């Protein structure tokens, strides 16, 4: 097993400090995010477990009212969990280009609740059931559809809100993405990404694919059976493209 010695070392450092204990994949994720500085990785794991307790993540995942709020948020942010790809990795699709910017800004108030609902979405991916024999038991796949993206989505309030969500992802759900496919991207998006590329973690860049259309490569990698027809898959009437279909439900 790769990094077996590091896993033994970090488990020794964390013995009795995490309840429940972190899985090997969670330890590896934090280790990679810390550049395999085991002291930093151990500190970050302890901080995340403390955050989970302080925020009562377990309780919130069972709170019927919050679960309903998160499902309604999917109708605003136009995202949903579409099961797993052909490799058994959870797949989330989000139609960012179709956002109503004002509706997103309103949904983000109060920001604390918005961040909580985002954390619940991250938890859903973290807990997603995977087929037996799945090789990548941690990685998830994100497809961002930018069809319709325009200047209305480039505003200070929206960027501040998304920054708050990114802080949660970076601090408490590091190294979870296996692939990020940005499809139907206008030229301006590629220009923006190229301009800030030197500020983005190189590992993240290797997982990022940007296309002006829906590339066949993505369909081949993920499998047509998990994708809606709008993304050149075989699934019909799937939310968030068919709004009448409604969001999926896996844990409630």
UniProtKB/TrEMBL annotation:
<dbReference type="Pfam" id="PF00650">
    <property type="entry name" value="CRAL_TRIO"/>
</dbReference>
<dbReference type="InterPro" id="IPR051026">
    <property type="entry name" value="PI/PC_transfer"/>
</dbReference>
<dbReference type="InterPro" id="IPR001251">
    <property type="entry name" value="CRAL-TRIO_dom"/>
</dbReference>
<protein>
    <recommendedName>
        <fullName>CRAL-TRIO domain-containing protein</fullName>
    </recommendedName>
</protein>
<dbReference type="InterPro" id="IPR036865">
    <property type="entry name" value="CRAL-TRIO_dom_sf"/>
</dbReference>
<dbReference type="InterPro" id="IPR036273">
    <property type="entry name" value="CRAL/TRIO_N_dom_sf"/>
</dbReference>
<feature type="domain" description="CRAL-TRIO">
    <location>
        <begin position="69"/>
        <end position="234"/>
    </location>
</feature>
């Amino acid at each position: 097993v790769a990094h077996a010695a590091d896993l033994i070392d970090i488990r020794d450092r964390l013995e009795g400090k995490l309840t429940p204990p972190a899985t090997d994949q969670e330890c590896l994720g934090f280790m990679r995010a810390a550049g395999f500085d085991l002291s930093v990785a151990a500190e970050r794991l302890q901080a995340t477990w403390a955050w989970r307790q302080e925020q009562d993540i377990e309780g919130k995942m069972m709170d019927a009212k919050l679960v309903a709020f998160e499902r309604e948020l999917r109708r605003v942010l136009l995202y949903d969990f579409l099961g797993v790809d052909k490799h058994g990795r959870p797949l989330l699709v989000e139609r960012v280009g179709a956002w109503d910017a004002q509706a997103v800004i309103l949904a983000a108030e109060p920001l604390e609740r918005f961040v909580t609902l985002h954390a619940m979405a991250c938890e859903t991916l973290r807990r997603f059931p995977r087929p037996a024999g799945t090789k990548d038991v941690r990685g998830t796949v994100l497809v961002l559809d930018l069809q319709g993206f325009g200047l209305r989505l480039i505003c200070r309030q929206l960027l501040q809100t998304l920054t708050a969500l990114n802080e949660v992802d970076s601090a408490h759900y590091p190294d979870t993405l296996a692939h990020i496919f940005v499809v139907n991207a206008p030229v301006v998006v590629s220009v923006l990404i190229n301009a800030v590329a030197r500020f983005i973690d190189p590992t993240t860049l290797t997982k990022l694919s940007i296309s002006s259309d829906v590339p066949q490569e993505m369909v081949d990698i993920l499998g047509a059976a998990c994708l809606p027809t709008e993304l050149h898959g075989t699934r019909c009437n799937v939310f968030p493209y068919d709004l009448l279909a409604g969001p999926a439900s896996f844990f409630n």
